Every structure is written in structure tokens, then in C-alpha cells.
Amino acid sequence: MTRCWTTGCAAACVVLAVGLAAPAVAQGTAAGAPAMRSTGVPERDTLLRMMRLMTIEFKDARLEDVVRYLGEQTGAELEPMWIDDQNATGLDKEQTISLKVNNVSALTVLEKILARAQTDAFAEENTNTWQMSDLGTLQFGPKARLNKFKRLEIYDINDLLLVIPEFAEAPQFNLDSVLQNTGGGRGGGGGGQSPFQNTQRQQQGAFGGDERRPREERADDIKRIITELVEPNQWIDNAGDGGSIRYYQGTFIVNAADYMHRQLNGYTWWPSGVTAQRTRAGGRYVTLNPEATSSQLNEIQNFPVRIPPP
Question: The whole model's pTM is what?
Fold first, then answer.
């Protein structure tokens, strides 16, 4: 099924392999959006709608029309960050998009569209991404715009700060010293000396030297790993404005945008893996053992029995 429409002087064509409706001008949920029962979590409902598989092709389509089409076909609440009178940074509605995908989720389609809508590939603050709002809408646009929507989370890192001792060598046992202290087994008194040698050295090396490092230093190591790997240009410590991270009594206090929290801990309301139910081919069957009353005696044989002598 093929749908074509004209936007200005550019023609946009969409090939639909799943029987979707053509893009409409007005925003809202189209008839092609699948019916879905609410899970009670608005954010989860939105992402579930964005998991719908799509086979689609855009040719020089206006970005505003593409976004409207995704919202109509998925029924998800989309919140694009457009350029307007109050915001000079954002998505350009008139930018043209060309994209062809086959059997991918609507969220993947959106990510590919955001990559093509990138205005400056060398400016980290203008990189496009998406995040969930506190109302359950899917926000997307430049990170500089998404950074205005922050939330505070406290992450317990006590398990990461725990140092487990490793006793690589067992203490030496000196049996001669034990016999000498006990008088050679002739009733002599002992001086109470331990038979184990070098126990103090073994205990000092059990932690590999980390027992002398304060927890704050170990927490700083974890913090440095996070700020170097997760959106390094967005942290306040790195001259960004996306989020801040502070250590306090075994926890990290993070005030950041949702797309940064997602990379730290994911979403608690989203499953970490995909589960599937499988059934064996064929119908069910039950095997019953026959009762003794229905059994039949086939043959009797005599065997010699030898009685042992008393």
C-alpha cells in the first residue's frame, strides 16, 4: 500500500507494509493506531506504543509531517522541541527527511529521524535525543533543550564501595613450637604462643592495600568513571548543564535530565529482558498405568531353591 502527498515543492511518499493509514494534517490518534490497555504507568504506555513495528519510506518529507505521522500511527504522546519565538535552539519544522526502514520499531524510526535532523554534528549541546517527561510524554530534540527538564534521584552505591578481603596465602603452622611450649608432651606448661606464624602480615595484605583508602576516594573513582562514560560533555563538573552528581554517605545524589538517568539506571518500570511463552507442538496427552485387577497371568515357572546347611 503506497501513500503520497505534497509538502510545498517536495513530494513525500510513504510505503506501508503493515496496512497503516496515510498521514493526516491534524494531530491526534489516527484510526491506524492500535488499541492498547493502559498499564497504569504513563511512561510505560508511551514506550509500549513506540514498540510497534513499521516498514516505511520517507522521501523529502517535512519533519513536522513525519513527527505527526508517527504520533498518529502509534498513538503515543509525542512532545517535539521545535524552534519558536522563545527558543532559538530546537528542531526545524521545515527540514526535509529521507528515510527507508524495514520492520523496525517506531522508536528506532524516531532515533534515525533525529540523527538525520541533526543541524550541527560537531556541537555536542545540539545533539538530538529523546527522554520521558514526568507526565509520560516522549520528549525529543537537542540536548540543550532537554536539559531544562531535570529530576533528582538518589542511587545507593554501598555495594560498589564494599571491599571483599582476599586471603591468598594461609598462615604457616609450626608444630615444633607447639610441642616445645607444651613441654614435649611431658606435662610442662606452655607460654600461650600461637602456632600460626605471620598472621599479621597475612591480614594486612588481605585487602591489597585498599583498606587504607577512604570510602570517599573510592566513590570519587566511581564518579569519575560515570562522568567520563555517560554524557561526558553534559555534567556540570565538565562545564555542561545537563546534570550534577554528588557523593553523600554511600549514595550518589544526581540531579539530571531523564536521558542521563536512563543511561545510569534504565527505567524501573521497563522490563530488563524479553520473555516469551512457548508450547510444544501437538496436543496434550496423559499416560495411565493399568490396575492389578485388569492384569493377566501369562506363565508360571519353577526354579530350584537350595537351602544352606545349618
Answer: 0.68
Q: What confidence tens digit (pLDDT) does each residue in 96-142 have?
A: 999 999 999 999 999 999 999 987 755 666 799 999 999 999 999 99
- Residue 250 DSSP code: T
Exposed, middle or buried, 286 (CB in 10 Å: 0-12/13-18/19+)? exposed
147-165+213-269 is a CATH 3.30.700 domain? no
Give yes or no for a contact between 130 and 140, defined as CB atoms under 8 angstroms apart. yes
Do the Cβ atoms of 202 and 171 come closer than 8 Å? yes
CB 59 within 8 A of CB 13: yes
The count of C-alpha atoms lying within 13 angstroms of the C-alpha of 245, restricted to the half-sphere facing its C-beta, is 30
Q: How many CB atoms lie within 10 A of CB 256?
A: 25
**Interatomic CA distance for residues 57 and 97, integer angstroms:** 10
**Of 109, 146, 144, whose CA–CA distance to 130 is shortest?**
146
Distances (CA, A) of 134 to 76, 129, 150, 170, 241: 15, 17, 10, 56, 19
Could you state, in order of their start, the residue ranges of all structural domains in the chain? Answer: 2-145, 147-165+213-269, 168-206
